[in-house]
Amino acid sequence: MSRMTVNGRPVEYLMDEDTPLLWALRDASNLTGTKYGCGNGDCGACMVHVDGVALRACLITIAEAEGRFVTTIEGLSRDRSHPLQQAMVAEQAIQCGFCTPGIVMAAAALLADNPAPDEAAIKAAIPNICRCGVYPRLIRAVERAGR
Ligand code: FES
Ligand code: FES
């Protein structure tokens, strides 16, 4: 069992403590915006915020998330109009969209720390893999959101 706060609500997961946070969010909380891509920390599709830091939910167990504040893509903006989401649309930085939630979470954490990141900072903070190759548009979107 593990207790934490997810998108502002207290949650208790009655699962094995070694369960990756990714599966608790998706299977027990039905927060399916957090994607399963690789399951071993490579792709970034499962990125969430834990106490404000962007982390891969496939690499954290629910025991490690005990007592912490978790935010998923569903909790990033109550009306789904986070400036970053608007910028992603404006720059057409979404193709199939599978990688998009993880990218948005990584980028939102970056912008919270650095509202005007340059290209090098964006590339360093967003290591996510996008099989559709939206990388140039993604960089423009993050720059736009930071303005
Ligand atoms: Fe977590 Fe790929 S599913 S990094
Ligand atoms: Fe398709 Fe990134 S938009 S994987």
Description:
- The structure is a single chain.
- By secondary structure, the protein is of the alpha+beta class.
- The protein folds into 2 domains: 2-75, Beta-grasp domain (Ubiquitin-like (UB roll), Roll), CATH 3.10.20.30; 83-146, DNA polymerase, domain 1, CATH 1.10.150.120.
- It has helices at 21-28, 73-76, 83-90, 100-113, 119-125, 135-146, and strands at residues 2-6, 9-13, 47-50, 53-56, 69-71.
- A 5-stranded mixed sheet has the order 2-1-5-3-4, with helices on both faces.
- α3 (83-90) packs across α6.
- It starts with a strand and ends with a helix.
- It binds FE2/S2 (inorganic) cluster (FES) (2 copies).
- Residues 36-39, 41-46, 56, 58 line the site of one FE2/S2 (inorganic) cluster.
CATH superfamily of the largest domain: Beta-grasp domain
Structural class: alpha+beta
Which overall shape is indicated by the principal axes computed on the Cα atoms? globular
The chain-level mean pLDDT equals 95
N-to-C CA distance: 43 Å
Taken together, the total number of domains comes to 2
| Strand ordering within the main sheet | 2-1-5-3-4
The percentage of residues in β strands lies in 5-15%
Q: Biggest β-sheet: count, sense, barrel? A: 5 strands, mixed
Radius of gyration over alpha carbons?
15 Å
Number of E-type strands: 5
- Identify every distinct bound molecule in the structure, by name, code or SMILES: FE2/S2 (inorganic) cluster
Count, helices:
6
Helical fraction equals 25-40%
Keywords: 2Fe-2S, Iron, Iron-sulfur, Metal-binding, Oxidoreductase
Domain 2Fe-2S ferredoxin-type: 1-76
GO molecular function: 2 iron, 2 sulfur cluster binding; metal ion binding; oxidoreductase activity
Protein name: 2Fe-2S iron-sulfur cluster binding domain-containing protein
